[in-house]
Amino acid sequence: MNMSHPTPPATLIDVRSPGEFASGHLAGAINLPLDQLQHSIGRTVPDVATPLVLYCASGARSAFACGLLQQLGYTQVSNGGGVGLLAMQLQRAIVRG
């Protein structure tokens, strides 16, 4: 019998500023602004094998952040792009606050 192991859900990380995050972010996302990411990621996501999906407004900051996390040893990092498109792709609500 071939039993497949379920893929753990990815942690959503919004790399925009706190103000941008408050104006609308994906439900369940964690806000780690790009300028704080390198110093905060180890406390927030200590396991470098955790699947991560990073996003921002357009995908540019999250692309940079993906490279940074890969340099720090994170192995399952992907760029989700912009918040609006990712919300549609994941069928996840955008919440304020």
Shape: globular
Number of domains: 1
Low-confidence stretches: none
In order across it, which strands form the biggest sheet? 3-1-4-5
What does the oligomeric state look like here?
Answer: single chain
Number of helices: 4
* Computed CA radius of gyration, to the nearest angstrom: 14 Å
Helical content (DSSP H or I, runs of 4+): 25-40%
For the record, the CATH architecture stands as: 3-Layer(aba) Sandwich
Portion in strands = 15-25%
The CATH homology group name: Rhodanese-like domain
CATH fold-level topology: Oxidized Rhodanese, domain 1
- SS content category: alpha/beta
Largest sheet: 4 strands, parallel
**What is the tally of beta strands?**
6
- The helix/strand series, from N terminus to C terminus, equals EHEEHEHEHE
What is the top-level CATH class?
A: Alpha Beta
State mean pLDDT (0 to 100 scale). Answer: 93
Distance between the termini: 47 Å
Tell me about this structure.
- Residues 6-94 form the Rhodanese domain.
- Pfam families: Rhodanese.
- One of its GO terms (molecular function) is transferase activity.
- With 97 residues, the protein is of the alpha/beta class.
- The protein has a single domain, classed as Oxidized Rhodanese, domain 1.
- It has four helices and six strands; from the N terminus they run E-H-E-E-H-E-H-E-H-E.
- The strands form two sheets. Strands 3-1-4-5 form a four-stranded parallel β-sheet.
- Strand 4, helix 3 (60-71) and strand 5 form a beta-alpha-beta unit.
- It starts with 10 loop residues before the first strand and ends with a strand.
- The mean pLDDT is 93.
